[in-house]
Design a protein that fits this description.
single chain; mainly beta; Cathepsin D, subunit A, domain 1; 2 domains; six-stranded mixed sheet; 7 helices; 28 strands
């Protein structure tokens, strides 16, 4: 397993970036397809990508959903001595939770479990935690312990210890989730990990950044405390947040071949590492998929795998700049029975999610100091 590392500038050793490598493993969909269970699973637990962004839960229960295509996770540790866990670094939620020895759900039984009895620094909180999913729920209790992220020891960090978990987690490589959105979103009022990092002065700058590689052999990384220029080129476009709850920005329009095909007049989008696809309202996503030549088959939008090189780019116009996603990026080159799937998925009524399909193209910087998202072309 790859461990975190620290980069320091030659001119000033205090300018340190703490980096956590991300593994790109098999997705839950791929595991289920290998076992011949995907169709049954898909029908029983339909994908609802917008569940986690329902405003009704913004200050209470934190919704999540069964994104069967999530692939990236990194390693953190909790407790003294440390117990290691694979977590999804999720900019679309704010809580940290991992499976615990109190959980007997199938999803817990094939993942690492936190044992508070083996940590000399654990303290019980006494409160319960309930995180609602699009296909079930996670319930548990809250506790405090030392959480180590990339060598940064965050003491007395509140986190969730699961007692039950939704079935789809059984098929995910990650054990739990580390949320990186704003504290106002956090279930049970739990202070997010990054907020404690900032409060304790553990990061040089109040920002973190994400690079997602398309390659399974590695290279993906979350950087805490700054920006790593080796992962992008060209200028950074800084975009002010339109809502300081999620990492939410305004998109001006979406075009194909110069024609506005979606988001005419502007729309709201959340930059979310915890969503695999680019998600939007059904009519808009249908329009984009029609323009790129995709058809709807059994819940997915698919294209002929041999036609990718002839398919057009899809361009997101944001803050006066163009962010182009080529077909080589938005078509997932894993053939299904019907063909290759596109990375554009149906969502809610108006909100968009710029998930991993977008972030793989654009190095994404999340600045709490300025309440902005920075985007630059990924290397």
């Amino acid at each position: 397993m790859k461990w975190a590392f620290v980069l320091c500038a030659m001119v000033a050793l205090s300018e340190c970036l703490v980096q956590i490598p991300l593994e790109k493993g098999k997705t839950a969909r791929e595991i289920l397809e290998e076992q011949g269970l995907w169709e049954e699973f898909r029908l029983k637990y339909p994908y609802n990508p917008m569940a986690k962004f329902n405003d009704r839960f913004a200050v209470a229960d934190q919704p999540m959903t069964n994104d069967a295509d999530l692939a990236y996770y990194g390693v953190i540790s909790i407790g003294t001595p440390p117990q290691s866990f694979k977590v999804i670094f999720d900019t679309g939620s704010s809580n940290l939770w991992v499976p615990s020895v109190y959980c007997n759900s199938p999803a817990c039984n094939n993942h690492d479990k936190f044992n508070p009895g083996r940590s000399s620094t654990f303290r019980n909180n006494g409160r319960s935690l309930s995180i609602r999913y699009g296909t079930g729920s996670m319930t548990g209790i809250l506790g405090y312990d030392t959480v180590t992220v990339g060598g940064l020891a965050v003491r007395n960090q509140i986190f969730g210890l699961s007692e039950s978990e939704a079935p789809f987690m059984q098929y995910m490589r990650a054990d739990g989730i580390l949320g990186l959105a704003y504290p106002r979103l956090s279930a049970s009022g739990a202070t997010p990990v990054f907020d404690n990092m900032m409060r304790e002065g553990l990061v040089n700058q109040d920002m973190f950044s994400v690079y997602l590689s398309s390659h399974s052999q590695g290279g993906s990384v979350v950087t805490f405390g700054g920006i790593d220029p080796s992962h992008f080129y060209g200028p950074i476009t800084w975009i002010p947040l339109s809502n300081e709850l999620y990492w939410q920005i305004t998109v001006d329009s979406v075009t194909v071949n110069g024609q506005v095909v979606a988001c005419n007049g502007g729309c709201q989008a959340i930059v979310d590492t915890g969503t695999s696809l680019i998600v939007g309202p059904q009519s808009s996503i249908q329009s984009i998929n029609q323009w790129v030549g995709a058809s709807s088959q059994n819940g997915d939008y698919v294209v002929n795998c041999n036609s990718v090189s002839q398919m057009p780019d899809v361009t997101f116009h944001i803050h006066g700049q163009q962010f182009t996603v080529p077909a080589s990026a938005y078509v997932r080159q894993v053939s299904s029975y019907y063909g290759c799937r596109t990375g554009f998925g149906n969502g809610g009524d108006s909100l968009w999610i710029l998930g991993d399909v977008f972030i793989r193209q654009y190095y994404s910087i999340f600045s709490r100091a300025q309440n902005m998202v920075g985007l630059a072309r990924a290397r």
